[in-house]
Amino acid sequence: MSDSIGLSSGPPETVLGPAPPGAPEQLEKACGEAGTERRAAIANVVRAHPEWPAGWAALAADTTDDVEAYAYYRVGYHRGLDALRKAGWRGSGYVRWSAPDNQGFLRCVEGLGRLARAVGEEEEAERCRLFLRQLDPDRPAGA
What we know:
The chain is an all-alpha fold. 58% of the residues lie in helices and 0% in strands. It is built from six helices and no strands.
């Protein structure tokens, strides 16, 4: 029998698994392309790694159509939730911006909220705002 008592210093923190091998470099190269070539290159990264939220966030950020961006952010958000669950997240606890592997998912949550507002989904926009605050209350503004 142990004499120690396990105390928690707060909610658990979850970090998404690492990006698929080579994906960050592929995305960086794709984002460096010009015009329509960039769009096609980013879409190819997403095709190769559809489970990776950062690719969906980049694809959403590269469109000027609000409805299209909303859809891309929504897919990235759901793929990110799948990845969080796989990493042990059980619906609560922190998912910090300071962990680079979390940033693609957090961009999707932020983008989904912003685009939800743009397409008139005020309730969803508010849910995303609150969810982001719960996931990382210390997230830098504009991150």
